[in-house]
Amino acid sequence: MRRWLAAPLALLALTSAAAAAPSRVVSFNLCADQLVLALADPSQIAALSPYARHVGISAAAEAARAFPVTSGSAEEALALGADLVFLGPRDRLATGQLLGGRGIRVERMPLATSLDDAKAIIRSTAAILGHPERGEALAARLDAATAPPGPAPSALPYERRGYAAGPTTMLGDALARAGFRHARPAAGFGGFVSLEAIVLLRPDVLVLNGPPARAADQGTALLAHPVLARLYPPDRRIVIPDVLTVCPGPGLVEAITRLAAARAAAMR
Hints:
It is built from 12 helices and 10 strands. The chain is α/β, with parallel strands linked by helices. It has 2 domains: 88 residues, Rossmann fold, CATH 3.40.50.1980; 114 residues, Nitrogenase molybdenum iron protein domain (Rossmann fold), CATH 3.40.50.1980. The strands form 3 sheets. It has a 4-stranded parallel β-sheet, with helices on both faces. The longest helix is centred in the first third of the chain and has 19 residues. The termini are far apart. Keywords: Signal. It comes from Phreatobacter stygius. This is ABC transporter substrate-binding protein.
């Protein structure tokens, strides 16, 4: 009896999700852009945020070129006939109130600081868009990118001016899932690390957000320091662009995949 009921109930659930799915989705948030592009039908997407096509800040800039972008105003969302608008966690309060007052569904994209956060956001966004199965599939891709157990080389994320993201950030969690050990395990969200501290810590690898560059200013001078060049030649530097770890989504899958491959190479 239960088997006979299971198929109709599953079909009913899918039908209900499809019936409730929004048809005019507008995103005013960079992370929402990327999830909408990954999880929604193209026909559902009315417009994306002003930043969606910017290669330097969006991991889905190329895919975003196929869709209109806005300046982020409530008037544009109304003119587009939006029935769902994504905003950031705390921005555009007046815009959200205005749109909500017009009967438009407004969803705020939460911040993620771990892969568990990311998977929860992916699943909830997919359900809101009417495609929960796509959320499960993307979450499964994140899990699949995780490295198998084994030796854990130490790694230190390092940015201009000496800032190092800590283990309780998305990048820090991605490092752990890829099989690395954070060189500063008690650093929380992170902080500034001097050149002298790096020499003392001697992490196995540095994780940078871009390829080595000339010392164009004081911020990049530290990264180009001769001591770092000697201790960390190219084969001990891993480049993971910021755009891959800022938001939940396919970019995060790519970041973990790259890190896991670098860890495997370091173990050879």
